[in-house]
Fold this protein.
Amino acid sequence: MNVDFSVVAVDKEVWTKDMDSFGYGLFHNPFWVEAMSTEASPAIYLNIISDGGRVEAKFSGLIINEGIVKGKTLYGFSGLLFRSSDKAEMSGCMEALRRYAIHIGLSRIMLYCYDHIISEPFMFKGFYAESKDEYYIDFKSGEPVKISSNLKRNAKKAQKAGVVVKESSSPEILRRLFVLLEETRKERFGKYGKDYDPMYIYNMNETSLRTLLDKGYAKMFYSELDGEINTVLYALEDSRRIYFLLMGSDDRAYNTGIPAMIALHISEYAVSKGLDYYNLGIVPKAELGGAGVSLFKEQQGAVRQPGYCYYSWFLRFPYSLLNPMLSRKLRRNPAFVTDSC
Protein backbone atom coordinates (compact mmCIF):
# COMPACT_ATOMS: atom_id res chain seq x y z
CA MET A 1 0.00 0.00 0.00
CA ASN A 2 1.38 3.41 -0.97
CA VAL A 3 1.72 6.00 1.79
CA ASP A 4 1.78 9.72 1.14
CA PHE A 5 4.10 11.89 3.19
CA SER A 6 3.95 15.61 3.83
CA VAL A 7 6.61 17.92 5.27
CA VAL A 8 5.83 20.47 7.97
CA ALA A 9 8.18 23.14 9.31
CA VAL A 10 7.92 23.37 13.11
CA ASP A 11 9.66 25.29 15.86
CA LYS A 12 12.42 23.57 17.81
CA GLU A 13 10.24 23.03 20.89
CA VAL A 14 7.74 21.00 18.87
CA TRP A 15 10.55 19.19 17.03
CA THR A 16 12.23 18.04 20.25
CA LYS A 17 9.09 16.61 21.88
CA ASP A 18 9.38 13.19 20.23
CA MET A 19 13.10 13.34 19.45
CA ASP A 20 13.91 10.38 21.71
CA SER A 21 11.84 8.07 19.48
CA PHE A 22 14.23 8.59 16.57
CA GLY A 23 17.71 7.66 17.82
CA TYR A 24 19.12 11.13 17.21
CA GLY A 25 22.81 12.00 17.24
CA LEU A 26 24.60 15.01 18.68
CA PHE A 27 24.47 16.89 15.38
CA HIS A 28 20.69 16.50 15.06
CA ASN A 29 20.20 18.18 18.42
CA PRO A 30 18.97 21.79 18.37
CA PHE A 31 21.80 22.79 20.73
CA TRP A 32 24.26 22.18 17.86
CA VAL A 33 22.02 23.52 15.09
CA GLU A 34 21.24 26.76 16.94
CA ALA A 35 24.94 27.36 17.67
CA MET A 36 25.77 27.00 13.96
CA SER A 37 22.86 29.16 12.75
CA THR A 38 23.16 32.82 11.81
CA GLU A 39 20.84 35.43 10.37
CA ALA A 40 22.20 34.56 6.92
CA SER A 41 21.87 30.79 7.49
CA PRO A 42 18.85 30.25 9.75
CA ALA A 43 17.95 27.03 11.52
CA ILE A 44 15.06 24.95 10.18
CA TYR A 45 13.25 21.98 11.76
CA LEU A 46 11.03 19.67 9.71
CA ASN A 47 8.69 16.82 10.57
CA ILE A 48 7.75 14.40 7.79
CA ILE A 49 4.27 13.08 8.44
CA SER A 50 2.40 10.11 6.98
CA ASP A 51 -1.17 10.41 5.74
CA GLY A 52 -2.15 8.76 9.03
CA GLY A 53 -0.85 11.79 10.93
CA ARG A 54 2.21 10.19 12.54
CA VAL A 55 5.69 11.75 12.34
CA GLU A 56 7.77 9.24 10.37
CA ALA A 57 10.99 11.23 9.87
CA LYS A 58 12.69 14.36 11.12
CA PHE A 59 15.18 16.88 9.78
CA SER A 60 17.19 19.57 11.55
CA GLY A 61 19.69 21.89 9.95
CA LEU A 62 20.15 25.18 8.14
CA ILE A 63 19.12 26.96 4.99
CA ILE A 64 22.34 28.31 3.50
CA ASN A 65 22.81 30.70 0.59
CA GLU A 66 25.57 29.56 -1.76
CA GLY A 67 25.26 32.54 -4.08
CA ILE A 68 24.12 33.04 -7.64
CA VAL A 69 25.87 29.95 -9.02
CA LYS A 70 24.46 27.34 -6.59
CA GLY A 71 21.44 28.99 -4.96
CA LYS A 72 20.01 28.09 -1.54
CA THR A 73 20.67 24.69 0.06
CA LEU A 74 18.89 22.67 2.73
CA TYR A 75 21.89 21.63 4.84
CA GLY A 76 21.71 18.87 7.44
CA PHE A 77 24.67 18.19 9.71
CA SER A 78 23.45 14.62 10.10
CA GLY A 79 21.14 12.32 8.17
CA LEU A 80 17.38 12.29 8.07
CA LEU A 81 15.99 10.59 11.19
CA PHE A 82 13.61 7.74 10.30
CA ARG A 83 11.15 6.06 12.63
CA SER A 84 11.11 2.90 10.49
CA SER A 85 13.86 0.96 8.73
CA ASP A 86 11.43 -0.03 5.97
CA LYS A 87 13.12 0.98 2.71
CA ALA A 88 9.88 1.95 1.01
CA GLU A 89 8.96 4.32 3.86
CA MET A 90 12.46 5.76 3.97
CA SER A 91 12.35 6.39 0.22
CA GLY A 92 8.94 8.01 0.58
CA CYS A 93 10.25 10.37 3.26
CA MET A 94 13.30 11.32 1.18
CA GLU A 95 11.09 12.00 -1.84
CA ALA A 96 8.80 14.16 0.30
CA LEU A 97 11.82 16.13 1.49
CA ARG A 98 12.99 16.58 -2.10
CA ARG A 99 9.57 17.85 -3.21
CA TYR A 100 9.43 20.20 -0.23
CA ALA A 101 12.83 21.69 -1.06
CA ILE A 102 11.68 22.35 -4.63
CA HIS A 103 8.40 23.85 -3.37
CA ILE A 104 10.13 26.44 -1.16
CA GLY A 105 12.60 27.39 -3.88
CA LEU A 106 15.75 25.59 -2.75
CA SER A 107 18.31 24.36 -5.25
CA ARG A 108 19.78 21.43 -3.39
CA ILE A 109 19.74 19.16 -0.29
CA MET A 110 22.93 18.16 1.57
CA LEU A 111 22.58 15.58 4.36
CA TYR A 112 25.86 14.84 6.14
CA CYS A 113 26.20 11.99 8.63
CA TYR A 114 28.16 13.17 11.68
CA ASP A 115 27.47 10.91 14.69
CA HIS A 116 24.99 8.89 12.63
CA ILE A 117 25.76 5.25 11.78
CA ILE A 118 24.28 4.05 8.47
CA SER A 119 25.17 0.44 7.81
CA GLU A 120 24.74 0.48 4.03
CA PRO A 121 24.06 3.01 1.28
CA PHE A 122 20.54 3.21 -0.10
CA MET A 123 19.75 4.50 -3.55
CA PHE A 124 17.13 7.20 -3.06
CA LYS A 125 15.55 8.82 -6.10
CA GLY A 126 17.24 12.12 -6.86
CA PHE A 127 20.13 11.59 -4.41
CA TYR A 128 23.65 10.19 -4.46
CA ALA A 129 25.68 9.01 -1.47
CA GLU A 130 29.20 9.59 -0.15
CA SER A 131 30.87 7.25 2.34
CA LYS A 132 32.14 9.01 5.47
CA ASP A 133 33.00 6.59 8.26
CA GLU A 134 33.62 7.39 11.91
CA TYR A 135 35.34 5.57 14.79
CA TYR A 136 33.43 4.57 17.92
CA ILE A 137 34.28 3.13 21.32
CA ASP A 138 31.14 1.42 22.59
CA PHE A 139 31.18 1.29 26.39
CA LYS A 140 27.84 -0.54 26.59
CA SER A 141 28.84 -3.53 24.46
CA GLY A 142 30.22 -5.48 27.40
CA GLU A 143 33.47 -6.03 25.51
CA PRO A 144 36.73 -4.69 26.99
CA VAL A 145 38.26 -1.75 25.14
CA LYS A 146 41.46 -2.97 23.46
CA ILE A 147 44.03 -0.21 23.89
CA SER A 148 47.32 -0.73 22.08
CA SER A 149 50.56 -1.12 24.02
CA ASN A 150 52.10 1.61 21.86
CA LEU A 151 49.46 4.13 22.96
CA LYS A 152 49.92 3.17 26.60
CA ARG A 153 53.69 3.54 26.21
CA ASN A 154 53.37 7.03 24.74
CA ALA A 155 50.91 8.09 27.43
CA LYS A 156 53.31 6.85 30.10
CA LYS A 157 56.11 8.86 28.46
CA ALA A 158 54.02 12.02 28.77
CA GLN A 159 53.14 11.23 32.36
CA LYS A 160 56.81 10.75 33.28
CA ALA A 161 57.63 14.09 31.66
CA GLY A 162 55.22 15.75 34.08
CA VAL A 163 52.27 16.37 31.76
CA VAL A 164 48.95 17.08 33.46
CA VAL A 165 45.59 16.86 31.65
CA LYS A 166 42.99 19.46 32.60
CA GLU A 167 39.47 20.42 31.50
CA SER A 168 38.19 23.86 30.59
CA SER A 169 35.55 25.89 28.78
CA SER A 170 37.42 29.19 28.94
CA PRO A 171 37.93 31.61 26.02
CA GLU A 172 41.70 31.54 26.64
CA ILE A 173 41.95 27.79 26.06
CA LEU A 174 39.70 28.08 23.00
CA ARG A 175 42.04 30.71 21.55
CA ARG A 176 44.98 28.41 22.27
CA LEU A 177 43.15 25.62 20.41
CA PHE A 178 42.99 27.79 17.29
CA VAL A 179 46.71 28.50 17.50
CA LEU A 180 47.44 24.77 17.79
CA LEU A 181 45.04 23.90 14.96
CA GLU A 182 47.02 26.23 12.72
CA GLU A 183 50.27 24.58 13.79
CA THR A 184 48.78 21.16 13.01
CA ARG A 185 47.58 22.38 9.61
CA LYS A 186 51.05 23.70 8.72
CA GLU A 187 52.66 20.45 9.86
CA ARG A 188 50.34 18.33 7.69
CA PHE A 189 50.76 20.66 4.73
CA GLY A 190 54.52 20.36 5.00
CA LYS A 191 54.31 16.58 5.30
CA TYR A 192 51.65 15.76 2.69
CA GLY A 193 51.67 18.83 0.43
CA LYS A 194 47.88 19.21 0.69
CA ASP A 195 46.11 22.04 2.47
CA TYR A 196 42.78 21.83 4.32
CA ASP A 197 40.45 23.89 6.49
CA PRO A 198 40.38 22.74 10.14
CA MET A 199 36.84 24.15 10.37
CA TYR A 200 35.46 21.27 8.30
CA ILE A 201 31.77 21.79 9.18
CA TYR A 202 29.68 24.67 7.86
CA ASN A 203 29.62 27.70 10.21
CA MET A 204 31.96 26.03 12.69
CA ASN A 205 34.17 28.87 13.93
CA GLU A 206 35.40 30.46 17.13
CA THR A 207 32.06 32.19 17.76
CA SER A 208 29.89 29.08 17.34
CA LEU A 209 32.31 26.93 19.35
CA ARG A 210 32.30 29.53 22.10
CA THR A 211 28.49 29.38 22.19
CA LEU A 212 28.54 25.62 22.71
CA LEU A 213 31.03 25.97 25.57
CA ASP A 214 29.02 28.74 27.24
CA LYS A 215 25.85 26.65 27.15
CA GLY A 216 27.58 23.56 28.56
CA TYR A 217 27.32 21.42 25.42
CA ALA A 218 31.06 21.16 24.88
CA LYS A 219 34.28 20.82 26.85
CA MET A 220 37.99 21.11 26.16
CA PHE A 221 40.68 18.76 27.43
CA TYR A 222 44.19 20.19 27.38
CA SER A 223 47.70 19.33 28.46
CA GLU A 224 49.96 21.40 30.67
CA LEU A 225 53.74 20.95 30.85
CA ASP A 226 56.10 23.50 32.38
CA GLY A 227 53.34 26.10 32.20
CA GLU A 228 52.83 25.49 28.48
CA ILE A 229 49.74 24.14 26.68
CA ASN A 230 50.78 21.80 23.88
CA THR A 231 47.52 20.00 23.00
CA VAL A 232 43.86 21.01 23.17
CA LEU A 233 41.00 18.65 22.28
CA TYR A 234 37.48 20.05 21.83
CA ALA A 235 34.61 17.61 22.46
CA LEU A 236 30.83 17.74 22.27
CA GLU A 237 28.99 16.02 25.08
CA ASP A 238 25.51 15.17 26.30
CA SER A 239 24.20 12.74 28.90
CA ARG A 240 24.80 9.69 26.64
CA ARG A 241 27.96 10.28 24.57
CA ILE A 242 31.00 12.36 23.81
CA TYR A 243 32.33 13.37 20.37
CA PHE A 244 35.89 14.24 19.33
CA LEU A 245 35.38 17.37 17.23
CA LEU A 246 38.79 19.07 17.01
CA MET A 247 42.34 18.64 18.28
CA GLY A 248 45.42 20.77 17.81
CA SER A 249 48.97 19.91 18.92
CA ASP A 250 52.47 21.30 18.52
CA ASP A 251 55.75 19.47 17.91
CA ARG A 252 56.50 19.16 21.61
CA ALA A 253 53.18 17.39 22.15
CA TYR A 254 53.94 14.74 19.54
CA ASN A 255 57.51 14.27 20.78
CA THR A 256 56.33 13.84 24.37
CA GLY A 257 53.36 11.52 23.74
CA ILE A 258 50.77 14.03 24.91
CA PRO A 259 47.99 13.14 22.39
CA ALA A 260 48.10 9.54 23.66
CA MET A 261 47.76 10.70 27.26
CA ILE A 262 44.76 12.89 26.43
CA ALA A 263 43.21 10.02 24.44
CA LEU A 264 43.34 7.73 27.47
CA HIS A 265 42.08 10.49 29.74
CA ILE A 266 38.92 11.01 27.64
CA SER A 267 38.10 7.30 27.59
CA GLU A 268 38.49 7.18 31.37
CA TYR A 269 36.36 10.31 31.66
CA ALA A 270 33.60 8.76 29.51
CA VAL A 271 33.58 5.58 31.62
CA SER A 272 33.48 7.58 34.87
CA LYS A 273 30.44 9.51 33.54
CA GLY A 274 28.66 6.31 32.50
CA LEU A 275 28.46 7.40 28.85
CA ASP A 276 27.26 4.96 26.19
CA TYR A 277 29.98 5.67 23.65
CA TYR A 278 32.85 7.87 22.58
CA ASN A 279 32.76 8.89 18.93
CA LEU A 280 36.27 9.75 17.75
CA GLY A 281 34.94 11.35 14.61
CA ILE A 282 35.78 11.18 10.94
CA VAL A 283 39.14 10.49 9.33
CA PRO A 284 40.89 12.87 6.91
CA LYS A 285 41.35 11.80 3.31
CA ALA A 286 44.34 9.56 2.56
CA GLU A 287 46.29 12.40 0.96
CA LEU A 288 45.97 14.38 4.22
CA GLY A 289 47.35 11.62 6.44
CA GLY A 290 44.18 9.64 6.93
CA ALA A 291 46.02 6.35 7.50
CA GLY A 292 47.92 7.77 10.46
CA VAL A 293 44.78 9.26 12.00
CA SER A 294 42.92 5.97 11.55
CA LEU A 295 45.74 4.12 13.29
CA PHE A 296 45.65 6.58 16.22
CA LYS A 297 41.92 6.02 16.65
CA GLU A 298 42.26 2.24 16.39
CA GLN A 299 45.03 2.27 19.00
CA GLN A 300 42.48 3.72 21.41
CA GLY A 301 40.24 0.71 20.87
CA ALA A 302 37.84 2.43 18.48
CA VAL A 303 36.04 0.47 15.76
CA ARG A 304 35.31 1.90 12.32
CA GLN A 305 31.59 2.33 11.68
CA PRO A 306 30.03 3.10 8.30
CA GLY A 307 28.27 6.34 7.50
CA TYR A 308 26.83 7.80 4.32
CA CYS A 309 26.03 11.37 3.41
CA TYR A 310 23.20 11.97 0.95
CA TYR A 311 23.21 14.84 -1.50
CA SER A 312 20.53 15.69 -4.02
CA TRP A 313 21.26 16.65 -7.57
CA PHE A 314 20.52 20.28 -8.32
CA LEU A 315 16.76 20.54 -8.14
CA ARG A 316 15.77 23.55 -10.20
CA PHE A 317 16.66 25.38 -13.39
CA PRO A 318 19.14 26.97 -14.04
CA TYR A 319 21.16 25.15 -11.34
CA SER A 320 20.18 21.76 -12.80
CA LEU A 321 22.37 22.56 -15.81
CA LEU A 322 25.30 21.68 -13.53
CA ASN A 323 24.08 18.08 -13.03
CA PRO A 324 25.76 16.40 -16.04
CA MET A 325 29.13 17.88 -15.12
CA LEU A 326 28.63 16.85 -11.47
CA SER A 327 27.69 13.32 -12.52
CA ARG A 328 30.86 12.87 -14.57
CA LYS A 329 32.99 14.12 -11.68
CA LEU A 330 31.37 11.76 -9.16
CA ARG A 331 31.82 8.66 -11.30
CA ARG A 332 35.58 9.12 -11.06
CA ASN A 333 35.52 9.08 -7.24
CA PRO A 334 35.00 5.68 -5.51
CA ALA A 335 33.80 7.39 -2.31
CA PHE A 336 30.52 8.26 -4.05
CA VAL A 337 27.65 5.89 -4.78
CA THR A 338 25.49 7.12 -7.64
CA ASP A 339 23.39 6.00 -10.55
CA SER A 340 22.45 8.99 -12.67
CA CYS A 341 20.88 12.40 -12.31
User: Anything to note?
Assistant: The chain has a mean pLDDT of 91. The domain at 137-305 is CATH 3.40.630.30 (Aminopeptidase). The chain has eleven helices and 16 strands. The first strand starts at residue 5 and ends at 10.
